[in-house]
Amino acid sequence: MAATHRERTEEERERAKEAVRELIRWVGDDPEREGLLDTPRRVVDAYLEYFQGYEQCPEEYLTRTFEQVGGYDEIVLLRDIPFHSHCEHHMAPIIGKAHVGYLPTDRVVGISKLARVVQAYAKRLQVQERLTAEIADCIQKVLEPQGVAVVVEATHACMTCRGVETPGVTMTTSRMMGVFREDDKARSEVIKLIGF
Ligand SMILES: Nc1nc2c(ncn2[C@@H]2O[C@H](COP(=O)(O)OP(=O)(O)OP(=O)(O)O)[C@@H](O)[C@H]2O)c(=O)[nH]1
Ligand SMILES: [Zn+2]
C-alpha cells in the first residue's frame, strides 16, 4: 500500500473549522471572542499533525534493508521510542514509549525506520492494544525476521484528566511473535534487554 496524501478542499476545511466553533460553543465559550477567532484554524491544522499517520504507509519504511551486517544474528532492540497518540474513544492523548526488538533472519533495517513505524501507527485514532499489534505485525510481515517483540507503556489522558481521574496510571501492552512467542529463553532475553 503506497502512502497517500489526501488534498482537502477549502469546503472541507471550512466545515472542520465550523465543527471546532461548535465545540467551543458546546463547552460554553464564544467563538467570536477575539482570543478564539483564530483557534478553529489552529485546531484543524493541529489535527492534521496529530493524525498524519493516515497519510503514511509504515510498510514502506521497512522496504530498504541491509544484508551486510557482519553475520550479526542477535537481537536488535530500540528502547524508549517516545510517541503520542489519541485514544479512539475520547480522542484524548495517549503518551508513552515503545520498545521494539527483532531477531533478524538475514537482513536488518535502518533503526530510525522502526521509530517511523511506531509514529505512523501512533498518529492515528488508536487503542493501545491495536497500536502494539500493528507495529509488531508490520515488522513481521515486511522483514520476516525470526521474531518480533513490541512492548508499549503509556498513560491515557482519558483516564488521568477525566473520567476516573487516576494520574500516574500506566498501561503496558506487549506483542511477541516468532521465537519470542515460542521460545521461553528468547522471550526472557528480550524482556531483560527491554529492562522489565
Ligand atoms: N483497552 C483499552 N481501553 C482504553 C484505551 N483507551 C481508552 N480506553 C478505555 O475505553 C473505555 C471506554 O469506555 P466507555 O464506558 O465506553 O466510556 P466512558 O463512559 O467515557 O468511560 P470512563 O472513561 O470510565 O468514564 C474506558 O474504560 C477507557 O479507559 C485503550 O487504549 N485500550
Ligand atoms: Zn479514551
Automatic annotation (TrEMBL):
Positions annotated to bind Zn(2+): C87, H90, C158
Enzyme class name: hydrolase
EC code(s) of this entry: 3.5.4.16
Alphabetic keyword roster: GTP-binding, Hydrolase, Metal-binding, Nucleotide-binding, One-carbon metabolism, Zinc
Keyword Nucleotide-binding part of the UniProt annotation: yes
GO function term, MF aspect, one: GTP cyclohydrolase I activity
Reaction(s) catalysed (UniProt annotation): GTP + H2O = 7,8-dihydroneopterin 3'-triphosphate + formate + H(+)
Pathway: Cofactor biosynthesis; 7,8-dihydroneopterin triphosphate biosynthesis; 7,8-dihydroneopterin triphosphate from GTP: step 1/1
Residue ranges of domain GTP cyclohydrolase I in the record: 17-194
Keyword Cell cycle listed: no
Entry similarity comment: Belongs to the GTP cyclohydrolase I family.
NCBIfam families for the chain: folE, PRK09347.1-2, PRK09347.1-3
Quaternary context: Homopolymer. Toroid-shaped homodecamer, composed of two pentamers of five dimers.
Entry protein name: GTP cyclohydrolase 1
